[in-house]
Amino acid sequence: MTTTIRVSGVLERLQYLFEQVDFFSQSIAEDNKSLVVGKLWELIPILKDGEGLIDARSKYNVRDENFVKQVRQLEKILYRMEDLVESHQVGGGGGGGEGVAVASRGQGRTKNSIFKKFIDRKANSNNFQADLSSLTDQIDRILTLLQDYLVFDEMPARIVDIGDMGLSRRPCVYYEENRIMRRERDEEELVFALTRTTASRIEIISICGMGGIGKTTLAKTVFNDVRVKCHFHRHAWVSVGLDFRIRDILETIFHELGLSSSEKQLNLEDLEQEIYRALKSNRWLLVLDEIWSIQAWETIRSIFEPSGGKYDGKVLVTTRNRDIALSLSAEGRIHDLGFLDDDQKWELFNRLAQLGGLELNSYQEIFARRIVRQSGGLPLAIAEVVDMLMLKSSDEWEILLQYSDVERSRTQGFEAVTIPSELVSALTEGSSTNLEVISICGMVGTDNTSLARTLYNNSKVMNHFNIRAWVNVTQEFQTRDMLVSILNQVWPSSSEELLTRMDKMELAEKVYKLLKEKRWLVVLDDTWSIEAWESIRVAFPVNNFGERILVTTQYTDVAECTSGDGHIHYLGVLNDEQSSELIKRIAQLGEAVLNSEHLQIARKIVRQSGGLLSSIILLANMLKSKPTDEWESLLGHSAAETSGTLGFQEVRSSLELSYYGLQDVLKPCLLYMGNFPEGYKIEVDKLCQLWIAEGLISPKECNINGKTMMEVAEKYFDQLAARNLVQVPKDEMSNHQNFRYGSLHEVVRDICITKAKEEEFFEVLMPGSSKDSVFRRAIFLDKLGDMDIRPYLGEDLRTLLFFDSFHQSGEQYVFPRAIPDLTNLKWIRVLHFDGVTFKGGKLPSGIGNLVLLRYLSFRDCYLTEIPSSISNFLFLLTLDLRVRKLCRVTIPNVLFKLERLKHLYLPLNIRTPNHDKLQLDGMKQLEILENFDTRVCNAGEIFMSTSLRILEVTVQGNLDDLEKIFKCIEANANHLRKTSINIKNFDCYSEERLSFIEKVFSSRVLHILRLEGRIGRLPLFETSPMFTEIYLNGSLLDEDPMQALETLPHLRVLALETEAYIGKEMCCSLSYFQELRSLKLSNLYNLEAWEVEEEAMPKLSTLTIENCRGMKMLPEGLESIDNLRKLEIRMMPKGFVSRLQKIDGEGGEDLHIINTNCTIEFGSANVL
Asked: Quick one: signal sequence residues (predicted)?
């Protein structure tokens, strides 16, 4: 449940506000401050306990309405408290605080009248303490209600109908496992183990079993057992997780033990000492739930030394990995939770079916038994089966059973998929002195397993290797099981009894010996973690005979770790054309006769697959089994009724599993992306800024790791991309660079929208949406027609996102949008306009009253005037004024007042009312500054910013301005991540200017260079600059520029335009331009011959040749570039064009040069 995560974020921000001593020394009594902070800290353990229950229930769309209602109310109260404190802080109710006053040019510090009006109405000094006390009392009442919720024995099993919650009407059965199928024996054994008296030592007891088996439920039941509660004096529960942090663990223990400190934040050593002192004279119990590595315990175990006498300390651990359990509980005991057998599964099914009102006749019972038998032995899986059968009519059960063997359905028809030749080559060609690992990486549904299976059974691959083995790793891997699986395949004479007697090291040694001096292939399928690879790699010898390991994984970080510098094959989703072609090939395998009408129907149906290979294959198999005259009948119900049959629901379930496996801080960040329209390319920088403005990025993590908010937000995005929950460009995945864009697959987006609505995190406005109060709302104007949106702009809104795609549709005229008055949105923090055409080019009224704004964006909007009231936004962190390119924006000279601003994006075309230069000298905290133009900005003022991470500057040929800019770049060199400079009208007519150009090209902190003007020759590079993009225009170079540019190791984009080069011949040398992705040759009138040598530009994907009149043909060397996907030919001679076009059997002599995956686009061809 992300609500508790969001609430924790508000708590953290409030704590920060309350710890500002200068503010509170004059605004609030110290005892009142302690009372408020104490109440807030009491919330944290209660929320975490409740969160575990809600997360378990939300997997089945079930919520405890009492708990949810109180947490929602708590969120609202905490937001109000935050509003109250911040508005009082701004209004000067006593002490100031960081950047709270308004500076006026040429005057002392004054209060803006808008703030006086705001404060007089909402947070003046007279009623501040009364308001704060009232909110504290409300929190106190909620504390009592939340504590009552955590009495587990008062929660009976029940049916919940969520139809009244505004969600789809889906009857779901919810059960507490210890109530429906209680593990009484397990409970008694664990209670006895925990409460028995032992020697003066720590005893660690482990509960071990795979995900969904009930480890946490059992541990929670024992933790709350009255005998355990009475036996121990101190209790602490910590949810560790995969991405644990030591400070988080210690702080959780600190607060769970009821400890407190007057200091702002204890360091790690003080935390350890406080915890040790609290435990040394007490009998204590610590639960470490969901441990994924031994390090989580080893790093804190020194605190929990034996306390002597009869006061024992006990640690209860839950883990999926038995190796970890064995290491931790060597002197204690391990409690293994196993699968349910068939009788237990059927018993549980009947109980849940009875609770859900699912009645079976004898015929239905036969099918139900068979379906349950295939469900596995997980209690949660049984509940999912009941849930699924409750949604289906009995005549659909047989179809469900027919397709429940998903692996079989997937592989049928996979023979129609084209296997990448480079993968077969990577497996069977070449040898290495290192162990070569090849990874196939893609999100759930891209079917890396089927691709790996097809490769594994490929005749060339089978003939190449002496020994092959396939290992199913899975999320709950066990090293021993993986080794035994390999031995069962490569050592046929072994017996189960013999393998059982061998320990893990003996098994690894046996695998090593059997593979030694042989050419072998091992597939590690469905690898979820780096730990799985690390635990088994010692068993694989390096023979230099061409041995290979093939890994399949959903996670990019796993692929990168296992393959190192080797081969990673990223699987993406298919577009509509690729999907339709695959449907056609698979259907024809079934001897279906297809006409154009059938293909049209197939294309309509295939759009429901979302481009996921597994769904497309399942869909094609179903079409193949039906007469073609029945295909059209699928159109009406394919999206809903056949989604489960086709495996779409399985994809969704797998993605939901990945979501629940995320670190807590990542969950709301992912859900937030559901605010954006379907298929939208989300700028990563903008997304991170939105997360920051929403309070989803923890300042505490920034302080601990010494990172900026943006750096932490980018790390969060990288983690989501590494889990393939966010789609990013493939070339960026393989280049270890910061991502520029990301998007959500439609299935992931649907999950985000559904869960966000369940948790009232945000709502996408649609016709028929509820007018109930929400905190965040996204409005797609182009989808709403003439709908009146005013009733949906309630005063509780803290986030409002407007999107309008009409301006991108190519329409010559876009009807302006009348945005309602915004005066009442006084608590709003985020206001985002994307593509909106404002009436008259002016902003809606009331926008100047939104004084608590953190984020304001007008990206791609039609806007020509910014009001002076923008200076009211003293909390503003991000201001994006990148309106449409044709808009000339008038900006009043008040931006310098926004002293807290960190991210400023200026428009391309600016003017001020008095036509003077825009003043920015007050912005000392800027981290991002884009579209800074020396025509309208003072180059000297850029020195005021000493924290720049991204800088994009346009300089109009003035050498003095260039010198100032470069001094700023050098001053920020340690933290600049991206630097772009656009130099216009800069002819090198003096040695001084030529010397500066040499300085530019030798810079180690400049990444993107656009240079317009004559320079004559390129300087030699003494070092390897960091250029990623170079655009040269009118340079009049008389020597081949490729000889100098090809050595740049990071260059990805190169454009030579309008006589940048005036020579006749050009050559891209052998094995150079290793990172180049895009090359443009435009208006190079003298160029006649271009040579591309072998292995040059191996990653080139886009090539543009425009108006190079002397060129007769493409270079033959392009034939070796397999990655080329787009060739653009514009205004080239007819003879050149004809060699790339085959008309009536004539021409096309150069088509063999271009690979079959490359698209050729022609522009005007009538130059000659």
From this structure: none
**Cα–Cα nearest to 606, from 622, 590, 593:** 622
E strand spans, 189-260: 202-208, 234-241
**Strands (E) located in 302-417:** 313-319, 333-336
pLDDT in tens, 292-325: 777 778 878 777 765 444 456 889 998 877 778 8
1080 touches 1056 (CB < 8 A): yes
The H or E element that residue 469 is part of is strand 467-474
In residues, how long is the chain? 1168
Tell me which DSSP letter residue 917 carries.
P
Instruction: Give the list of residues 6+ apart from residue 457 with CB closer than 8 angstroms, or none.
Output: none
Mind listing the pLDDT tens digit for each residue in 395-409? Answer: 555 544 444 444 444
711 or 36: which leads in pLDDT: 711
Report residue 302: phi and psi, to 5°. Answer: -65, -20
Please list, in sequence order, all residues whose beta carbon lies within 8 angstroms of the beta carbon of residue 108, skipping any fewer than 6 positions away.
Answer: none
DSSP state of 862: B
pLDDT(347) > 70: yes
Quote the CA–CA distance of 865 and 889 in Å, as a whole number: 5
* Weakest-pLDDT range from 502-506, 933-937, 1017-1021, 1146-1150: 1017-1021
Instruction: In whole angstroms, give the CA distance from residue 1092 to residue 1090.
Output: 7
Cβ(328)–Cβ(297) under 8 Å?
A: yes
Which range scores top for mean pLDDT: 24-33, 346-355, 564-573, 1140-1149?
1140-1149
| pLDDT in the model for residue 970 | 83
Closest of 289, 291, 290, 261 to residue 275, by C-alpha: 261
Q: Where are the beta strands (DSSP E) in 956-1074?
A: 978-983, 1008-1012, 1029-1033, 1053-1057, 1065-1068
Q: Are 804 and 837 in contact (CB under 8 A)?
A: yes
Residues 52 and 59: beta-carbon distance below 8 Å? no
Characterise 695 by phi-psi region: left (phi > 0), alpha (psi -120 to 50), beta (else). Answer: left
pLDDT of residue 47: 54
Ordered DSSP codes for 584-621: HHHHHHTT----HHHHHHHHHHHGGGTT-HHHHHHHHH
- CB proximity list for 706: less than 8 A, separation 6 or greater: none
Helical ranges in 92-180 per DSSP H: 113-122, 125-149, 177-180
Whose tokens are 């009592």? That residue is 144
Helices (H), 974-1060: 991-1001, 1042-1045
Mean pLDDT of the 506-524 span: 91
User: How big, in percent rounded to 5, are the helix, strand and coil portions of the chain?
Assistant: 45, 15, 40
When mean pLDDT is compared across 160-164, 349-353, 487-491, 872-876, the lowest value belongs to 160-164
pLDDT tier, 59 (very low <50, low <70, confident <90, very high otherwise) = very low
Residues 6+ apart with CB under 8 A from 360: 353, 368
Instruction: Please say whether the beta carbons of 1121 and 1098 come within 8 A.
Output: yes
Question: Look-up: residue for tokens 């160029």?
Answer: 1087
Query: What are the structure tokens assigned to 1102, written together?
Result: 């886009």
Radius of gyration of the chain (CA): 33
One-letter amino acid of 664: D
- CA dist list (Å): 840 to 705, 811, 1147: 47, 18, 54
Strand ranges, E, within 1001-1152: 1008-1012, 1029-1033, 1053-1057, 1065-1068, 1078-1082, 1089-1092, 1102-1106, 1126-1130, 1142-1143, 1146-1147
Site of tokens 């006086």 = 116
Tokens 């601990």 label which residue? 704
Cα–Cα separations (whole angstroms), residue 696 to 10, 11, 273, 681, 800: 9, 12, 31, 21, 16
How many angstroms separate the CA atoms of 652 and 747, rounded? Answer: 7
The residues that bridge with 1092 in the sheet, in sequence order, are: 1068
**What is the distance between the alpha carbons of residues 664 and 672, in angstroms, rounded to a whole number?**
14
Phi, psi dihedral angles at 817 (to 5 degrees): -100, 130
For 925, the 3-state DSSP assignment is coil
